[in-house]
Write a structure and sequence with these properties.
Shape of chain A: globular
Number of strands of chain B: 0
Order of helices and strands of chain B: HH
Oligomer: heterodimer
Helix content of chain A: 55-70%
Distance between the termini of chain A: 51 Å
Radius of gyration of chain B: 18 Å
Chain lengths: 308, 80
């Protein structure tokens, strides 16, 4: 299958979706981890990736509605909650705050609900960052580094925690980095919804099993703001292909401009372009710089939580 | 420096997430359990109300920041 790269003059055709390959690579990484160190955790993460990836694949092939997709993505959290029910070492039902605030008490029910709710929220936030060449792959790689730093600090300052919690996060960084080589400007391949949703669901599951929820949320604040502003602009869950107006348009100068249409969603990209048009390459560079800044705040959060 | 305002928005969101989560888990969640409250349920309503208030505060502040950002750029005002 090929799709048009609409942000380039002449709209060249690009192969898509690479999602199934990405899912396969992520699952293979977890299987290797399971073979090296047999435990439930890598299998839980693999199950999350498979469920979210399957929902994305159906969306790639048949286009799910704006409301159906988030509902189906709740299923991606089920393996985590069920595994914890039968083996209460999968995650901790308490949140760890930075500095002197310390951990909360155990909140089993609220935590289970939050895990199920986090899957569609994080996956869709990732999916909405999947508009330009190299955006989703670069975003996933940077945020996965912040996640790995947070989990690493927690694991190495808590001797009771096995290092496998850190090891199961490595495939996300590795796969997104390799994918970036093919997905960066000018893209040779797109991931499709299957890839973006699998990335997002895996990130959420790793944050929960690693016990670094705060650091993980902080790293993806640009994506959260982006999806929040889109949803508030279009007033609800609307499939992007059915939106009235695009947030950006390709000018005759070959640069991307912010849409002047009042009904166009106010995405992060459109906000960036209010200051003037940019080439796609520079636009993605700015988005990844903003993501790197959020990852820096995430690293500060991790240090304040686990080291100081 | 087109990224500076967005970095400020990200920092504000970061601080709000930390502070509001702390308030939620340390003050709102430990309120008496709903089923332990005999006569319904001023406390339960208060608990739900405060949770929504926290969420609404986050949304309102983020909306406000976007509003000022868009207005300062003289761009088309978003519909919401």
């Amino acid at each position: 299958m090929v799709v048009e790269d609409v942000h380039k003059v002449g709209a060249p055709k690009v192969p898509s979706p690479a999602g199934p390959l990405l899912i396969l690579a992520l699952v293979a990484g977890e299987v290797v981890e399971f073979v090296i160190s047999p435990s439930l955790l890598p299998l839980v993460i693999a199950a999350v990736v498979l469920v979210a990836g399957l929902v994305g694949l159906v969306d790639d092939l048949y286009v799910l509605g704006g409301k159906v997709k988030p509902l189906l993505l709740i299923l991606a959290g089920v393996p985590v909650v069920v595994a914890e029910f039968f083996n209460p070492t999968v995650y901790s039902s308490r949140l760890y705050f930075p500095l002197f605030f310390g951990p909360t008490g155990e909140h089993t029910t609220i935590f289970s609900i939050l895990i199920l709710a986090s899957m569609p929220i994080v996956s869709n936030a990732y999916n909405m960052m999947d508009s330009f060449n190299g955006e989703i792959s670069g975003f996933t790689f940077l945020t996965s580094l912040a996640l790995i730093l947070g989990i690493g600090l927690r694991v190495f300052t808590s001797p009771s925690l096995a290092t496998e919690r850190l090891a199961i996060a490595v495939p996300l960084a590795a796969v997104s980095l390799v994918f970036y080589i093919f997905n960066r400007y000018p893209s040779k391949v797109f991931d499709g919804d299957s890839g973006a949703l699998a990335f997002g669901a895996m990130y959420a599951a790793l944050a929960v099993t690693g016990g670094v929820e705060f650091a993980a949320i902080v790293a993806i604040v640009p994506a959260i703001l982006n999806s929040f502003y889109i949803l508030s602009s279009v007033r609800g869950f609307v499939e992007r292909r059915k939106m009235d107006a695009r947030p950006t348009y390709l000018g005759e100068d070959g640069l991307l401009h912010a849409s002047k249409e009042p009904s166009a969603p106010t995405t992060l990209v459109r906000m960036l372009l209010f200051d003037g048009p940019l080439s796609e390459r520079n636009l993605v560079r700015d988005i990844l710089l903003l993501t790197a800044f959020a990852c820096l705040l995430s690293a500060v959060t991790s240090f304040l939580t686990w080291v100081i | 420096m087109r990224l500076a305002p967005l970095m400020i928005m990200t920092t504000v969101a970061w601080l709000l997430i930390l502070v509001e989560s702390y308030v939620f888990f340390e003050f709102i969640v430990p309120f008496p359990q709903i089923h332990e409250v005999g006569a319904l349920t001023l406390l339960a309503l208060l608990k739900v109300g405060l949770t929504f208030a926290l969420g609404a505060a986050w949304f309102a502040i983020m909306f406000l920041l976007r509003y000022f950002y868009v207005r300062s750029r003289g761009a088309a005002r978003p519909p919401s």
